[in-house]
Inverse folding.
């Protein structure tokens, strides 16, 4: 899987530019605040339909303009595909091979991407939301049914939470089982799919971490739920919700379910979020992302596009070399300020960015 070219019009600080990428390592380099990360962001937007940085799509539109365009020609194991997005203040239009698609689910899988930046420390250091986001983004790219279940689960959860705030308690207790039946149908898929993913992720992440640290540290990743089939997860979730009606009514929201799940991440047996140093957290997050690449390779039959935004400057010399050894055979888009300082003579496609333009 690789991106052959990327076209940006009025995207962030780009007026109009086209990037041509090699199948190996592509290095976007230049001084800070020139637009390197904006290009990396655009690639991931075409992979997932969401930005890893912006909360709202309109933030992606160049100042003073009303519409942004992002497009790419891609080769995957099924052939060639063109993916495009027109982003407007009022919404967006997604197209695959020229045909308009109405659902983000239809975008997923055309090109898979794994994104890593210094901000990914949140995956280790922040609360459960960040780790659920990691699971959701990764699994959704591999499974449209998971993405659909996630969207439907969240909509039903919103309606259930609205019901819990109703002061007509007889109506609440009478109606909750109806919502819960639907909630558990989709929640069961989320729980079982996440369990399968974590079962693959845990040994791979441990292996990557041991490699990056020369065996000095042991990384352990596990779910805070026991492994269950979809049917078991549905039944257990329904029982859990039913047993806590009074608590949820008192709180005014649903206090249990896959929307509250978390990953437990430890380094040498100690909780990484609490006891891990900045460097340990960075290496642990990178290990998870490299493990994610291997999962894509196994499940999708080909590696994803790996996007590394300003990662090298945060790693010591030994770990830079180890990271470069891990990305052989993977199309990589890497941003940095000085190529010579991080790549050690490795043959790469170098693209210099100056003020939202390719310096040719």
């Amino acid at each position: 899987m690789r991106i052959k070219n990327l076209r940006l019009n009025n995207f962030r600080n780009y007026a109009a530019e086209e990037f041509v990428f090699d199948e190996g390592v592509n290095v976007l380099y230049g001084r800070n605040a020139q637009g390197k990360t904006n290009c990396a962001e655009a690639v991931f937007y075409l992979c997932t339909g969401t930005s890893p940085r912006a909360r709202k799509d309109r933030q992606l539109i160049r100042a003073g303009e009303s519409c942004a365009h992002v497009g790419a020609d891609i080769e995957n194991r099924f052939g060639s595909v063109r993916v495009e997005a027109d982003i407007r203040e009022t919404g967006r239009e997604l197209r695959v091979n020229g045909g308009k698609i109405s659902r983000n689910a239809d975008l997923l899988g055309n090109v898979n991407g794994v994104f890593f930046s210094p901000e990914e420390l949140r995956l280790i250091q922040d609360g459960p939301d960040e780790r659920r986001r990691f699971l959701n983004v990764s699994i959704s790219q591999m499974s449209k049914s998971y993405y659909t279940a996630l969207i439907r689960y969240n909509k039903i959860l919103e309606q259930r939470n609205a019901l819990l705030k109703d002061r007509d308690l007889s109506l609440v207790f009478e109606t909750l089982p109806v919502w819960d039946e639907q909630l558990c149908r989709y929640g069961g898929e989320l729980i079982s799919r996440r369990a399968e993913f974590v079962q693959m992720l845990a040994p791979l992440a441990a292996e990557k971490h041991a490699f990056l640290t020369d065996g000095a540290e042991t990384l352990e990743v596990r779910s805070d739920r026991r492994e269950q089939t979809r049917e078991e997860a549905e039944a257990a979730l329904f029982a859990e919700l039913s047993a806590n009606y009074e608590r949820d009514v008192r709180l005014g929201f649903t206090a249990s379910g896959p929307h509250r799940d978390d990953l437990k991440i430890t380094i040498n047996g100690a909780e990484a979020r609490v006891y891990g140093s900045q460097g340990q957290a960075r290496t642990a997050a990178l290990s998870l992302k490299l493990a994610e690449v291997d999962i894509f390779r196994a499940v999708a039959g080909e590696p994803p596009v790996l996007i590394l935004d300003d990662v090298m400057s945060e790693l010591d010399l030994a770990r830079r070399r180890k990271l470069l050894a891990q990305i052989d055979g993977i199309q990589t888009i890497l941003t940095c300020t000085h190529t010579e300082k991080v790549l050690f003579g490795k043959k790469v496609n170098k693209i210099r960015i100056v003020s939202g333009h390719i310096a040719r």
Observations:
- Residues 169-212 form the longest helix (44 residues).
- The chain has a mean pLDDT of 94.
- The two ends are 27 Å apart (CA to CA).
- The chain has eleven helices and 15 strands.
